[in-house]
Amino acid sequence: MFPFVIIPIGLLIFRLLGAAGVRRFSTLPASAAHAMAIMLMITASTHFVPAGVSAMPNHGDLVAMMPPFVPFPSLMVYATGVLELLGALGLVMTSTRRLSGIALAIFFVLVLPANIYAAVADIPFAGEEATPLWLRLPEQLVYIAVALWAARSADVRADEKSGLTERGAPKH
To answer: Per UniProt, which keywords does this protein have (predicted)?
Structure first.
């Protein structure tokens, strides 16, 4: 649930910076890209926290979420952590934002089976009760929507640089 709070707070902070004149955050989708990047940095860090650490989610918690059909669950947790970090980096770079947003949306779809399995199998997370499926599914849908929205900001920037308006007509 913690990541679900990071995105709106990050979005608000980045939009306020945009309103204050920071051009990087001049649009809602660009601000969403940066908010998603912060969320991904936080969630990715849990992939590398040793299993013995109980102060936060850790590698062992994520391995336990892996459905039985996933080969090499520990390696998959490390790999998904790296992918989250790369996705975060891609979102903050305007030139790779579109590709990163689309790739992250696909990534969130691909990790959905682990979230479903964890909810249905009642796998505890970070020493707490399992997150119910009715909460996990909308959460994943929000992540997918924000990733695609962030990808859209790259199109807006490209239009601005080419001198086109939102409808594709030249600016006058």
So the answer is: Membrane, Transmembrane, Transmembrane helix
Greatest CA separation found in the chain?
61
Q: Give the distance from CA 32 to its chain's centroid.
A: 10
Report the distance separating Cα 91 and Cα 97, nearest Å.
4
- Between the alpha carbon of residue 172 and those of residues 147, 159, 163, the distances in Å are 32, 14, 9
User: Domain coordinates of the chain in residue numbers?
Assistant: 2-162
Over the stretch 67-122, which tens digit does the pLDDT of each residue have? 999 999 999 999 999 999 999 999 999 999 999 999 999 999 999 999 899 889 98
| Six token digits for residue 45 | 């860090």
